[in-house]
Design goal:
453 residues; alpha/beta; Rossmann fold; Helix Hairpins; two-stranded antiparallel sheet
Length: 453
């Protein structure tokens, strides 16, 4: 079995992780006491990926919740689903990060680090063969951004051969108005860029728009946003948790969807995405799922994929769907929309299938896109970052916690380089740019050492 350890860091990470645990428990037929009440043995066949069996047959999630202040974790512990977690897996301190990346990385987070790593090592020792880690966090927060980066840095040192992915929530002015969020987001991405294998980027602004325009929720709250994100996580991880015709795992996703090590930021999405009142008025089929899958209305990041090009993408289907029909329509879609795919990377769409549909639906699909237009999101954050750093606003709070002033310039340059790489691969059509010989052209033979011409 290939287990995955979930790490929920910060207030947003813990709240989203708790909703994800609820969704996964519903998929596998687990109630809030950890008791199995499902109807199919398939629900238990690969349950060890995210759960382990405790005393009296109770199933316990492989999840660790971490925060630099106790308030949010205490509310989760006292909730109806709080008793499913192992008590030792609530890791927190007393003070908090004050929305300061430096506090989470250098001072308050460093004091909590050893306790967090002990909890991680304890969970890893209980695994038969762990395949990797997934971290849920908000890059705009002091704990999610600062302590999350510190934690991933140490995990990479302790487990260098395991896959690390993140579900990273990007800041948005529609949901939060913390003025230093661009600082935290850019500094966090600067650290995580070289550490993680891939990251799912989720924009609060996009989640807000989907809830309001598609799901018809007048005033979406953070709970609505977290539930929507948990649905996407549940769909993308379905092939890890259930048997299917074509399955995937963390390493397969990384190998298939990351053509260059630094360009590993994905756009997730789910279909169908409709209000409860509208679900009974539509019939789902494979062509409709695929057409809606590539629509901007279904994606969780505020960027238009038509403004860039897909490097790679993946589609995960749940339910009884025809694999032949899926492959045929996916090929047709890529052919019709070829201008939105990189010419130098053929067959760049991966498909996976899970036979078990989500509750209440006959079929569904999840989408993962590695599109160059995601650079627009980083450009927007970088513009806000440069605006406040130009006047050195609030910088003294970060320097007082141990962050060097040169780190701000290094982070700015690193993100600028990443944006330039996306733009380069979007406009490149000649594969010889990447050092490969052109078709029909042989590379000149290397000269033998010690032979005179």
């Amino acid at each position: 079995m290939r287990e995955i350890l979930t790490l929920c860091v910060g207030q947003a990470g813990a709240s989203i992780g708790n909703k994800f645990n609820e969704a996964v428990c519903e998929d596998h037929g687990i109630d809030p006491t950890g008791t199995f009440w499902g109807e199919s043995e398939l629900q238990l066949e690969r349950i060890d990926v995210y759960f382990y069996e405790g005393a009296a047959g109770k199933y316990v999630p492989r999840t660790i919740l971490m925060d630099l202040e106790p308030g949010n974790l205490e509310s989760i512990r006292s909730s109806s689903w709080g008793q499913t977690y192992r008590p030792d897996n609530f890791v927190f301190s007393k003070y908090g990060s004050g929305n300061n990346f430096a506090k989470g990385y250098y001072t308050e987070g460093a004091e909590l680090l050893e306790e967090a790593l002990d909890a991680i090592r304890r969970e890893v020792e209980m695994c038969e063969c762990i395949q990797g880690f997934q971290m849920i966090h908000s890059v705009g927060g002091g704990t999610g951004g600062g302590f999350g980066a510190l934690l991933m840095d140490n995990i990479r040192q302790d487990f260098p051969d395991r896959t690390i992915c993140t579900w990273s929530v990007m800041p948005s002015s529609k949901v939060s108005d913390v003025v230093v969020e661009p600082y935290n987001a850019i500094l966090s991405t600067h650290k995580l860029l070289e550490i993680t294998d891939f990251a799912f980027c989720v924009d609060n602004e996009s989640l807000y728009d989907i809830n309001k325009r598609t799901l018809k929720i007048a005033n979406p709250s953070l709970c609505h946003l977290n539930c929507l994100l948990a649905r996407a996580m549940c769909g993308i991880t379905s092939t890890f948790r259930f048997p299917g015709q074509l399955n995937a795992d963390l390493r397969k996703l990384a190998c298939t969807l990351v053509p260059f090590p630094r360009l590993h930021f994905f756009i997730p999405g789910i279909v169908p995405c409709a209000s409860r009142g509208a679900q009974h008025y539509r019939g789902l089929n494979v062509p409709e799922l695929i057409n809606e899958m590539f629509s901007i209305r279904s994606m969780f990041t505020t960027c238009d994929p038509r403004a860039g090009k897909y490097l790679t993408c993946a589609a995960i289907f749940r339910g009884q769907v025809s694999t032949h029909m899926v492959e045929e329509y996916m090929f047709t879609t890529q052919h019709k929309q070829s201008r939105y795919f990189c010419e130098w990377l053929p067959n760049s769409i991966k498909t996976a299938f899970c036979d078990i549909p989500p509750r209440g639906l006959k079929m569904s699909a999840s989408f993962i896109g590695n599109n160059t237009t995601i650079a627009c999101m980083w450009r927007r954050l970088l513009t806000n970052y440069q605006t406040i750093i130009r006047r050195k606003a609030f910088m003294h709070w970060y320097i007082a916690e141990g962050l060097q002033e040169e780190e701000f310039s290094l982070a700015n340059a690193n993100i600028e380089d990443m944006i330039s790489e996306y733009q380069l691969h979007e406009t490149t059509t000649d594969i010889s740019h990447f050092g490969f010989p052109e078709e029909g052209h042989q590379a000149p033979p290397e000269e033998e050492e010690g032979v005179d011409n």
